[in-house]
Amino acid sequence: MSERATTIFSGALGVFLFLLIWELIGQYQLVGITWPPFTVVMEYLFDPSRRLLFQRALSATLSSMFLGYAIGAFVGLGLGVITHLFPLLRAGGDRLAAVVNSIPAIALAPLFVVLLSRGAAPPALAATGSFFVFYVAGTSGLGSALQSQVDLARVQGAGRWRRFTNIDLPMAFPTIITGMKLAMPVALIGTILGEWFGAPRGIGILIVNAMQNFQIPLLWSCVVLAATISLSLFALLTIVERAAFRRYR
Amino acid sequence: MRTESTGYTKTKPANPVLSVVAKFLQNYWGILLVLGLWEAVVIGRQLNSIVLPTPEDVVLAVIQNPILYLTNFLSTAWVALVGLAIGAVIGTTLAIISWSSRILSGVLTPLGLMFASIPVVAIIPILARLLGYETKTVLAIVSILSFFPFFVYTSTGLRMLPPGGHDLVSVIGTSRLRYLRHLSLPAALPSWCTAMRLAGPNAVLAAMVAEFLMATPGLGTLLSQASEDLNKAVALGASLVATVVSVMLFHLAQHLEKRVHAAWK
Fold first, then answer.
1. Contacts of A231 in chain B (CB under 8 A)
2. What is the pLDDT of residue A67?
């Protein structure tokens, strides 16, 4: 068997064993009634009568997430470009990003609720989370040009702007795509946390209500749903990332 | 280039006070800008402190209630640190065990990666329901969430051997255990430090989220209770304390990481 086939096979085996253990613990109630078997969760999740419920929650969560992700990308990459073009601002930008990243999201949520509105907390938290990832990816990507390339540009008389568009930006592209990938789960976490602070609907609301009201299959279904979205977007961007690395490196 | 810069300092000696201010502005312009905006919103919209306090109100709230913040800080910090330590020990140990066997690593590594790329915060309500609304549940939650980065990064690090390292040790001929001790474990240290930098601030966050959801004592509960009592300054004070702790942990871990990276190069 080739190396690649072995990797795929053992990975699939790992996932299968994980689901099997989950199922067995649930079937035999080894840790009590709050752990449902995998099959029960799947049945609950795909029950046609609940399709509308999940669809609504999902569309609310996804639109908040993508809005926040887009804002985070714009601000993070924008600040990254500014601090790259004006190195004097770099230290302050780094520190701001580090502090914003360290503020616990649940500490920021009340601020957004007050300053904007209840519905604004999910996209705002998604934006602050992904902002940091995009800023780090932007600055480290823009700084990744080789000294020889920079020297060549200088010898040929390229100014700061020409150097930026012709060297720094293309060189930053793969790193920025890695940032796009890493920011995705972060944006989803931000959205779910933001929803806990009283958004009208969304997966996060369903999760916290199900927890408080002891609706165990609903709770697990929502978490599975959130995990699945995150994993599929992550996988999708991993494919894009590989293509970009082949093209640019 | 060099002569230019020395010439500059000779003709125009820098004022020490001015250079300290300049240095400060250079490092903190972003944070000052955000605080200024906050202040401007409160004053501009004439919000009273029940809606939104100014930054000074928040700092004052912390200074005026040292005991309240200290006790809540200690219970959150204790749980976050112990949970982080448990997660680190289990994550690192499992990474080493899975390193020692090809089959295990093939089975466990994709699972670890999978868990590292899902929104783990969403698992907190499941764990809360499974284990009950107690402080030991917060501890378990922090341990489990800290486990993933340590497992994933240590697993990767154990394979990042220095060039020629494997050949050298194979030529000398050594046991698997000595191979681990002298080659793989040192090679994994930089990645392990990266895990620490990611997991450290996250442990504080996870502890606060868990406290917030289950109303167990700590900064998360102080935050939610003070918000309910419309005491926004006290609530945001909890945010401030948590942020300071988190930033300190981040810088500590980053410093450690940089030193290890520099030493390993």
1. 114, 117-118
2. 96
Q: Give the CA dihedral B227, B230, B232, B233, nearest 10 degrees.
A: -120
Q: Domain range spanning residue A2?
A: 1-35
Cβ pair A32:B130 closer than 8 A: yes
Compare A203 and B168 and report the one with higher pLDDT: A203
Residue contact B236–A110, C-beta within 8 A? yes
Mutation site for A-interface testing, chosen from B115, B117, B211 by largest number of A Cβ within 10 Å? B117
pLDDT over threshold 60, residue B41: yes
User: Of B110, B130, B208, which is closest to A34 when you measure between CB atoms?
Assistant: B130
Same domain, A41 and A31: no
Residue A37: per-residue pLDDT? 92
Residues A102, B126: C-beta atoms closer than 8 Å:
no
> For the CA atoms of A206, A73, B206, A227, what is the dihedral angle to 10 degrees?
50
Q: How far away is chain B from the Cα of A47, in angstroms, using its nearest Cα?
A: 21
Give the residue carrying structure tokens 């919000």: B47
CB-CB under 8 Å, A104 with B208: yes
Q: What is the pLDDT of residues A128-158, one digit of tens each?
A: 999 999 998 999 888 877 778 878 888 887 7
> Nearest CA of chain B to the CA of A115: how many Å?
8
> Are A219 and B126 an interchain contact pair (Cβ–Cβ within 8 Å)?
yes
A-B contacts at Cβ under 8 angstroms: 159
What pLDDT, in 10s, does the model give residues B21-39? Answer: 888 888 888 888 888 888 8
- Cβ of A92 within 8 Å of Cβ of B125? The answer is no
* Domain extent at residue B164: 66-264
Q: What is residue B13's predicted lDDT score, i.e. its pLDDT?
A: 59
- Looking at mean pLDDT, say which of A20-34, A104-118, B6-20, B36-50 comes out highest: A20-34
The total domain count for chain B is 1
The minimal CB distance from B118 to the residues A7, A114, A231 is found for A231
**B140 falls within a domain:** yes
Q: pTM score, two decimals?
A: 0.84
- The interface predicted TM-score of the complex, written ipTM, equals 0.81
Q: What residue type is B24 in one-letter code?
A: F
| A114 and A207 assigned to the same domain | yes
Please measure the distance between the N-terminal and C-terminal CA atoms of chain A and give it in whole angstroms: 30
* CATH number of the structural domain spanning residue B74: 1.10.3720.10
A59: pLDDT strictly greater than 60: yes
Round to whole Å and give the CA distance between B107 and A182.
Answer: 23
Amino acid identity, residue A196?
W
Decide if B48 is inside a domain.
Answer: no
Report how far apart, in Å, the C-alpha atoms of A221 and of each of A50, A207, A215, A226 are.
11, 9, 10, 9
Q: Which residues of A touch B117 (CB under 8 A)?
A: 185, 230-231, 234
Contact A210 B27 (CB under 8 A): no
Q: Position of tokens 């894009």?
A: A240
- Of the two residues B166 and A120, the one the predictor is more confident about is A120
In angstroms, the CA A193 to CA A109 distance is 8
